[in-house]
Amino acid sequence: MAKAVLTSKRDDFPKWYQDVVAKAELADNGPVRGTMVIRPYGYAIWERMQAELDRRIKAAGAQNAYFPLFIPESYLKREAEHVEGFSPELAVVTHAGGKELEEAAVVRPTSETIINVFFSKWVQSHRDLPLLINQWANVVRWELRPRIFLRTTEFLWQEGHTAHASQADARDYALRILHEVYEDFALNVMALPVLVGRKTERERFAGADATYTIEGMMGDGKALQMGTSHELGQNFAKAFDITFQSPSGASEYAWQTSWGVSTRLVGALIMGHGDDAGLRIPPALAPVQAVVVLVRDEDGAGERAAALAAELAGAGVRVQLDDRVDTGFGRRAVEWELKGVPVRVEVGPRDLASGSVTLVRRDRAGDKATVPLEGLGRRVADLLGDIQSALFDQALAIREANTAEAETMDGAREAAQTGFVRVPWDRFRDLETDLAAEALTIRCLQRDDGGIAASSADDGLVATVGRAY
Amino acid sequence: MAKAVLTSKRDDFPKWYQDVVAKAELADNGPVRGTMVIRPYGYAIWERMQAELDRRIKAAGAQNAYFPLFIPESYLKREAEHVEGFSPELAVVTHAGGKELEEAAVVRPTSETIINVFFSKWVQSHRDLPLLINQWANVVRWELRPRIFLRTTEFLWQEGHTAHASQADARDYALRILHEVYEDFALNVMALPVLVGRKTERERFAGADATYTIEGMMGDGKALQMGTSHELGQNFAKAFDITFQSPSGASEYAWQTSWGVSTRLVGALIMGHGDDAGLRIPPALAPVQAVVVLVRDEDGAGERAAALAAELAGAGVRVQLDDRVDTGFGRRAVEWELKGVPVRVEVGPRDLASGSVTLVRRDRAGDKATVPLEGLGRRVADLLGDIQSALFDQALAIREANTAEAETMDGAREAAQTGFVRVPWDRFRDLETDLAAEALTIRCLQRDDGGIAASSADDGLVATVGRAY
Fold it and tell me: In chain A, whose CA is at the least distance from the CA of B41?
């Protein structure tokens, strides 16, 4: 069935991606270049991501706030490196209220500058620290080569900004967000294994002393940077005059962090788990975890299907009833596969007569089982747990099968065509520019045991090389 | 205490409002004129509003989606009335990506046009209807006389847009949102009585056949329009070519609704319940329902306070522990009053020694009671229910005390200086322009029994006149 609906991943991965976005009704292109309309199903996925991330962010002590969309152009000039990086990406409001503005207003590419201006007002004493702020908002960076969810002119994200009294406290917090929010979310909600590591100096955020990252492998073997957490040192504190009076009465610059993830994660979901039949959504993330599909409304099957949906809802399953019997059953089955719903419960008069229904798992192609009606709620809830693990295991196996080791530039170049390559950082420290010339980047540095390198100057680190989105 | 902190409501209501916004740390002015920074406490209130509204919107069957911030200028010209209304309010992006745009992009003042463009693509058959979409987003309307939360250049809101197969279905849905979402939220979450009625033709949204509204009375006797729901007829369907094939095969224009509420509701909360000591937040809305204030950390009081906070959390209370004993107790008490936390639990060594704590209700000035430690969780949970009702009752009593009846223009003019005036619509039908000349508006039309008028042409309707925000 699937072949008729989607381009195959293997034949043309970018086209397959576009097909999934369109056919699963995740998003459409907006009329202004590079913008997107996130359709209800795509937005429901993003809402689930937001809820899971927001809960973890709050558990880490940060509070949400909201800063204005418009930033005075002069703000962006305070941090020279910033302007250089962003200037060609900015959208600028020159006219408003029917006339030309005295000072143009930039549509935020990030809220870094404006948040730091307010931090400098709010932070006075060591008692005001740590100040832990997060914002959910839309931001705009003009994209020349937009790709839906991955690189869009407008995207939705969260950006966290914090200020601390000491370097150690800031570093701990940047790593806490990395592990307790981003890594935990990737592993346990998105069911995607990620490399957790430190960016090289070349790859880190210009304003940061250190950038930490989670990197996922997509279905084509490329890397996707899924989230970053930055240790900013006192760089912004000095540019924006964020000082506090220490317990001893001295005036000191604050130590800061920032961290963010975006609607790009929807792209990670598609490319990390999708197959030739469409999306596959891990149950922890799925807006619809199980769909009860009524095959034909005969012999009371319609009522039974509705009752089963209610039973599943009662068992804590996010369930939807599909009783559109005037649409062909096959077409509906294809639609639910496209949408990646983890479990399909098919309810037909014949099965019902024998006291059973058919359970179809989305994580394994062709896995159908006839099961008794009795105890279906419990059975489906258990199955969702299995599917969550199975999707993670599959993604991990694929990453492992597509991760090579290399010692030389030639070896790295070749192996990186299909996946990740682990190379000795000691030897590749001076080869990063050569890699870049081949469109290869070092995704992150890790200790040999997978832990985070304390410094890129450490000996014996492993660098993972890959092609990247 | 409060007199030292805030301007009195009676002396200068606008100044009192500004003081509350600043001192309760709800929001700051942003650097671009008319924009605002919503601080963590203000944003936590908005998040609670969002969660309560979103739950009701979803229960009414609508799905969330997200449409782009930028709208091609040409879209706004499709609906002539629209452009005339909005043009002076628009913020326009003329430069992006380092050069001048071929077509300027308008920052959405509402997403009406762009949503309707996509509705015309998505709606093909009667099977696609009803299409029930909601969006949470920021919008921009350049304000010449901004006032924080009430009229800001950028504000946060939800806008619902729906398409239906029949006029009756669209009308029912507009009224369903009005009652089940907006009225229910105002009464049961915000604890604010609202007039629920129909706007006159002069006051209704230009693109609508009918506008329904909820109107609250603020602390100065003025009206605040808190939410509107529009029956759009086929007006936008014709402008944007939203047609569907009916079961009989005919092509028909869809019938539509739209409806919205915004961060203006935070203004309604402040002005609807605030007093000279600050905010008073109804428990159903309060981010912090009870604060456990440690008076002094002696004789194990600190541990007991923490344990009580945990007990309250266990009883389902949103609780915060204030153990900042190096800040004066009086100052902290003033702060929690400013922030409008419904219940204060004061824990001091002396009370503890006698097995009790002090409970302070925010809804009644000076209401303190010494209560036993035993069963505190249950007691506070019950008290929160009482406070929710008491705040509603107080607001209702104030509205009733400030609502007069009048039969003549002179009578209406005089009574409207301090509150609402109920006048016979039959007699005032031709006096609306005269009222406007006195800065008075008809807030809504109702049947004599308080029900919604089926048409403004009906006989015997009651019009409520007031000054308005």
Answer: A65
- Whether the upstream peptide bond of residue A342 has omega within 30° of 0, thus cis, is no
Model-wide pTM > 0.90 = yes
Helical residues (DSSP H) of B177-325, grouped into ranges = 184-188, 235-240, 264-273, 301-314
Show the tokens assigned to A359.
Answer: 């359970």
**Closest by CA position to A422, among listed A217, A225, A265, A212:** A217
| Interface test mutation site (partner A, options B35, B48, B58, B66, max chain A beta carbons within 10 A) | B66
Start-end ranges of CATH 3.40.50.800 in chain B?
290-383
The C-alpha R_g of chain B, in whole angstroms, comes to 25
Report the distance separating Cα A443 and Cα A456, nearest Å. 13
Residue A8 burial by Cβ neighbours in a 10 Å radius (0-12, 13-18, 19+)? middle
Q: In sequence order, what DSSP letters do the residues of B399-421 get, joined into one string?
A: HHHTEEE-SSHHHHHHHTTTSEE
CATH 3.30.930.10 spans which residues of chain A? Answer: 2-273
The full length of chain A comes to 469
pLDDT tens-place string over residues A233-243: 999 999 999 99
Judge whether B162 and B233 are in contact, CB under 8 Å: no
**pLDDT (tens digit per residue) in B393-447:** 999 999 999 999 999 999 999 999 999 999 999 999 999 999 999 999 999 999 9
What residues have CB less than 8 Å from A84, skipping those under 6 apart? Answer: none
- Residue of A26, A46, A57, A66 to mutate when probing chain B, most B C-beta within 10 A: A66
The one-character DSSP state at B111 is: S
Q: How many C-beta atoms lie closer than 10 Å to residue B282's C-beta?
A: 26
The CATH topology of domain A2-273 is: BirA Bifunctional Protein; domain 2 (3.30.930)
- H/E stretch holding B387: helix B376-401
Q: Take residue A127 and report the two structure tokens written for it.
A: 């008692």
Tell me whether residues A69 and B39 touch, CB distance under 8 A.
no
Q: What is the topology classification, in CATH, of domain A290-384?
A: Rossmann fold (3.40.50)
φ and ψ at residue A213, rounded to 5 degrees:
-140, 155
The CATH H-level superfamily of B290-383 is Anticodon-binding domain (3.40.50.800)
Q: For the CA atoms of B409, B410, B416, B418, what is the dihedral angle to 10 degrees?
A: -170
Portions of chain A given CATH number 3.40.50.800: 290-384
Is the Cα torsion angle A215, A216, A221, A222 positive or negative in sign? negative
- Closest to B79 (Cα-Cα) out of B170, B207, B204: B207
DSSP codes joined into one string, A24-44: TT-EEE-SSTT-EEE-HHHHH
Distance CA A467, CA A215 (A): 12
Please state the ipTM of this predicted complex.
0.96
Nearest beta carbon to residue B32 from set A35, A70, A91: A70
